[in-house]
């Protein structure tokens, strides 16, 4: 199995910002491949002729790199090793572990001939202080676990073979994991993957959430996570989550629920998607939907009896792929219809997507096509399903979702 799957889109993006006067911030879930990405990128730098001594790499997950040191100790340590009159590339991995790390980043940024790259597994990395300090001076590259295409590549599957049973691979992708290291564990069996996911999730909850925000009621927090994970793709609000939990005999205030959801999205476990009123052309502030960073985590979050239906899981996969492709995404809503996704593409165009597992009945066909047909403009409209035979209707393009994911 390929140890690294060449994460080309991210490498290309980093290369396009090389030597530009911007701090490169690589963010994303723990273990989604940030450190590996920086390793691959350093290999590219060496290929481009950058000397080994022009590159410095610090991994602040390792306590020996930061214990008993202040930010300025690390700053001078790095500064003393800089190569004069040459470009220097400094990588700070999991930099949020250093108190006052923003001073370290800023100090290096204003130093001549230094190109700074930082990673963090928490969106709080770019919270108010740092964002204010660095406003307009950083570019964030948000990394996701393997796409379906990267996953198949990592498993050495030849996607040019048109007779592959994509549905079976998709079940593996959904039921196991899309996290790079987890894919490597396939050969050791599902239990190993499960343990790995459990360990990652525990670390996120312990290190990034409960310790950081001093959450004492871990039971309430766990129940909220479970509830959101079981309701992927369903409209939710802190109020209705609090109400449902109350019926279960737990009283958690909706403002607490709101805070917990914020922590979960800041740690990249869930992604929140707002609703967009198609008629009034404005974002709505209620009934958001949440999607999970890796479908495999459902095994850990909701237990073995995964209740989330496969249509919603497919919707989750499509959402992440739209995000990878650089879209801004909303749920489209109008008085008499709802569309799964309204996207604003990198070039500023609008596209609509509806996702369903399969066109199993006339009723499904009417419902899924109908949602898109009710939108009365000329932007592209796509219906994605697992059906092998697709047929367009009234300007709506019906595509096989596996071909779409693999861009075939």
TrEMBL record:
It comes from the Bacteria. GO terms for molecular function: ATP binding. Residues 206-356 form the DUF4143 domain. It holds the Pfam family AAA_14. Keywords: ATP-binding, Nucleotide-binding. The keyword Thylakoid does not apply. Residues 23-152 form the AAA domain. This is ATP-binding protein. It comes from Sphingobacterium olei. The lineage of its organism: Bacteria, Pseudomonadati, Bacteroidota, Sphingobacteriia, Sphingobacteriales.
